[in-house]
From TrEMBL:
The gene is Eef1akmt1. It comes from the Eukaryota. GO terms for molecular function: nucleic acid binding; protein-lysine N-methyltransferase activity. It catalyses: L-lysyl-[protein] + 3 S-adenosyl-L-methionine = N(6),N(6),N(6)-trimethyl-L-lysyl-[protein] + 3 S-adenosyl-L-homocysteine + 3 H(+). HAMAP family: Methyltr_EFM5. One of its GO terms (biological process) is methylation. It comes from Glareola pratincola (Collared pratincole). The lineage of its organism: Eukaryota, Metazoa, Chordata, Craniata, Vertebrata. One of its GO terms (cellular component) is cytoplasm. This is EFMT1 methyltransferase. It is found in: Cytoplasm. Keywords: Cytoplasm, Methyltransferase, Transferase. Pfam families: N6-adenineMlase.
């Protein structure tokens, strides 16, 4: 069962809520354009964010910055895992010619369109992972837990620590700083991630290595 405590869900600003009806109209129009024109399945927005699943896509600039940081941290031939961070995954796939591999762990089964790189993931069962997903097999894990609660972060942290060889890039609310340090040993960065739809909550990035986000 997904945690449905409203206090844990990143809150939308009043301006964003006012634009909700317009957003859905735009969404319907985009769906029509996709079917008539064809589109890049890996581009941000090719799968619309679902607020019922506490999904909030990063802005294009933020997704690019985080993707480039993950590539640099992973190194040549590196492996990157995106845990509940699909907009970073999509931005990584736009750079398909680069020398790295990536997979996406995500609760939303719409992302199964990405084939073998998609791994169904429910943070409530943090180690319920495929057998071929070996421990400590990723050079970096980038994660954005869906809820601002210690329980969600703690369980997601189990997954992160299982997957990573060491490097962690976490995106979550500023109010989670103490919990992030406690469960993952990460410290806050100067870089401030932005979302395509404004959130009232202050979001931050956290790392446990010398990153380019300072």
């Amino acid at each position: 069962k997904m945690d449905d405590d409203d206090d844990d869900i990143p809150q939308l600003s009043s301006h964003t809520l006012a634009a909700l009806q317009e957003f859905y109209l735009e969404q319907q129009q985009r769906e029509g354009m996709k079917t008539s024109q064809g589109f890049n399945q890996y581009s941000i927005g090719s799968i619309e964010e679902d607020w019922q699943l506490s999904q909030f896509w990063y802005s294009d600039e933020t997704a690019s910055c985080l993707a480039n940081e993950a590539i640099a941290a992973a190194g040549k031939g590196g492996r990157i895992a995106c845990v509940s961070a699909p907009s970073v995954y999509q931005k990584l796939k736009e750079q398909d010619g680069k020398d790295f591999s990536v997979c996406i762990l995500e609760y939303d089964r719409r992302f199964s369109v990405y084939g073998e790189e998609f791994i169904f993931y429910d943070y409530n069962h943090p180690l319920n992972l495929p057998e071929n997903l070996l421990p400590h097999s990723f050079d970096i894990v980038i994660a954005d837990p869906p809820y601002l609660s210690e329980e969600c972060l703690q369980k997601t942290a189990e997954t992160i620590k299982y997957l990573t060889k060491g490097k962690i890039l976490l995106c979550t609310g500023a109010i989670m700083e103490e919990h992030a340090a406690k469960h993952l040993g990460v410290k806050i960065c100067k870089f401030i991630p932005k979302h395509s739809r404004n959130l009232a909550n202050e979001f931050r990035c956290y790392v446990n290595y010398a990153s380019g986000l300072e």
